[in-house]
Specification:
By secondary structure, the protein is mostly helical. The protein contains 4 helices and no strands. The protein has 2 domains: about 10-80, no CATH class; about 85-125. The longest helix is centred in the C-terminal third of the chain and has 37 residues, at about 85-120.
């Protein structure tokens, strides 16, 4: 029994729908800026209408459905994230700052040591 994944081949019809959806979304954004002299509600309506129509067209293609399902799953997974408490975030930030300070001192010391060895000991340039 083989567990090979099967990939579906998108038709040219699906590709045309995706391109059309992208074009309509762009037209909605352009309409938002083109209607700059109109009330904000009209501008927002043009933007939302363009994006909504693009999503509807995208939904009719298999590629679009796959992408929208992926987006839904991403949102669902994001809701599962456990954020640190304020004290945990403060402790982690303090540890990062301390590590950066230690690394800065270490790199400065390494630089000065190599500078001394190279210029003073090996080359004897500085006096």
């Amino acid at each position: 029994m083989s567990n090979q994944s099967v990939q579906t081949v998108s038709t040219s019809n699906d590709k045309i729908k995706v391109v059309l959806a992208i074009a309509i979304a762009i037209v909605g954004v352009i309409g938002f800026y083109y209607l700059s002299d109109k009330p904000a509600l009209v501008r927002a309506g043009a933007l939302v209408a363009g994006l909504a129509f693009a999503v509807l067209i995208l939904w009719t293609s298999s590629t679009g459905r796959d992408f929208l399902n992926f987006a839904k799953e991403a949102v669902r997974e994001t809701k599962k994230v456990v954020w640190p408490t304020r004290s945990e975030a403060t402790q982690i930030t303090g540890i990062v700052f301390a590590f950066v300070l230690v690394m800065a001192v270490f790199l400065w010391g390494t630089d000065k040591t190599l500078e001394f060895l190279l210029y003073d000991v090996i080359l004897g340039i500085r006096k």
